[in-house]
Specification:
The chain has 431 residues and is mainly β. It has 6 helices and 31 strands. The strands form 6 sheets. Strands 20, 23, 24, 25, 26, 27, 28, 29, 30 and 31 form a 10-stranded antiparallel sheet that branches. Strands 3, 4, 5, 7, 8, 9 and 10 form a 7-stranded mixed sheet that branches. It has a 4-stranded antiparallel sheet with strand order 11-13-16-15, with no helix packed on it. β30 and β31 form a beta hairpin.
């Protein structure tokens, strides 16, 4: 090829390259924020405007890349839903991460799905919050980048009207009802009284106060008023106590045992001084949270059911038994059925080695006749902690665990606490 032809070819190539360069330059310069894939965020139907997008856009054939940034200013919005829904529209693969802040405290971090579906958090109070959403922008051939959105908002949930409830409204002898006072102003003094026994409110959560209303196994069937005074507002609720059939038991006990325990003035006086005073105390806090567990972890025989009408030896006047008695071998471990505070842990002539535990609001358990004790008064126990071992001390005819629950001086059937059907348990309250 001669020089003239070579120069002609080179000239054509330069022209083509120049044209291509001009084309790429024009394409590059024409890239603006409209090339950034759309990212749209809404909180409870309100558009989040403070979105910053950074994107490296590809002009032609992937090269060169141009950095594009786009940012909108945002203003605080008002939210009135306690669990506001979040919608994020972004290119596939964005994988946005949601963070909720109040001041410097992080209240929530997770995906949009976790925010909306699992609802892993709930707002504790009205005030100022900051929502942050971060994710990737995958524009495929067009480029890639990331986005960050910030949305300050003020939570202003209207406080519901005060609610007072009693559930269930009818219980059998030995049952218990739950009195709830919700959404009253924080400074409201809430008190209640009933012929069924003293009423002690404990704080269940930020908006709820609860009290246990017992229908003791000795309570006469009928209607009983529960009178509540909340501030200046007075309300009367009614609890119906239904009759329950109790078994009759004839018990033969060696006179040496009865003389030293059941029929002993000294034994009964000691019991009246060491145990009975706790019938009239109630802690204002609630120690337990979960369903109660059975105090034994072995097979057992029910030797005496709850509430039996008991005739002892030749006494024509029956006594009543407010507990379940479980016959098990001597030395069987006894465990705390729930978190609580030990009030009594000592040997008493009438009840033998005795443990009394307060769970809050006046609800207590009484375990008698134990062989040994592993706790002491004032000790805070956790559910499942060992309390001691089964024995046959005090007024007893053989190794067994006397398991009694009282609210005040009223013995209630603890079985619903163990099987999960009691109205005072959390899952039953929420149901």
């Amino acid at each position: 090829m001669d020089m003239k032809k070579l120069l002609a070819v080179i000239s054509c190539l330069l022209v083509l390259l120049g044209g291509l360069g001009i084309y790429i330059f024009i394409q590059y310069e024409s890239l603006d924020t409209t090339a950034i894939p759309v990212v749209s965020i809404q909180l409870e139907g309100q558009r989040v405007t403070a979105v910053h997008r950074s994107f490296w856009a590809r002009a032609v054939w992937g090269l060169p890349s141009k950095e594009l940034t786009d940012a909108e200013g945002g203003v605080s919005i008002m939210v009135t839903a306690q669990r506001p829904q979040l919608q994020v529209t972004a290119p596939e693969g964005a994988e946005p991460v949601v963070t909720l802040l109040r001041g410097e405290e992080t209240l929530f971090t997770g995906t949009v799905e976790e925010w909306n579906e699992r609802q892993a958090f709930t707002y504790s109070e009205n005030g100022d919050y900051l929502l942050r959403v971060e994710g990737r922008i995958d524009g495929k051939e067009a480029g890639n980048g990331f986005f960050t959105a910030y949305q300050p908002f003020m939570l202003n949930i209207p406080r519901p009207e005060p609610v007072l409830s009693l559930a269930p409204q009818s219980v059998q002898q030995g049952g218990v009802a739950l009195l709830r006072a919700q959404y009253y102003p924080e400074d409201t003094v809430i008190e209640a009284e009933s012929a069924l026994g003293p009423v002690t409110f404990v704080k269940a959560d930020e908006d709820t106060w609860e009290a246990l209303i017992p229908a003791g196994y000795l309570q006469q069937p009928g209607e009983y008023a529960v009178n509540v005074k909340a501030g200046e507002r007075e309300t009367s609720l009614t609890l119906q106590v239904e009759k329950r059939d109790f078994e009759v038991q004839y018990l033969e006990v060696d006179e040496t045992v009865t003389n030293e325990t059941w029929d002993s003035a000294a034994a009964n006086w000691e019991f009246s001084q060491k145990v009975v005073p706790f019938y009239y105390t109630a802690d204002a806090g609630m120690y337990w949270e979960k369903q109660y567990t059975f105090p034994l972890k072995c097979d057992y025989k029910i030797s005496t059911p709850f509430g039996v009408i008991r005739y002892i030896n030749d006494d024509p006047s029956p006594a009543r038994h407010g507990a379940w008695d479980f016959a098990v071998p001597l030395g069987t471990p006894v465990y705390a059925p729930a978190d609580g505070k030990v009030e009594v842990a000592e040997f008493l002539q009438l009840s033998g080695n005795t443990v009394v535990i307060e769970y809050g609001g006046g609800l207590k358990s009484y375990f008698y006749h134990m062989d040994s004790l592993d706790v002491e008064p004032g000790q805070l126990v956790r559910q499942g902690d060992k309390l001691g071992e089964v024995g046959t001390t005090g007024f007893s005819t053989g190794p067994h665990l006397h398991c009694e629950f009282k609210i005040g001086k009223n013995s209630i059937d603890p079985w619903p606490l163990f099987d999960g059907t009691s109205p005072i348990l959390k899952k039953e309250r929420e149901g």
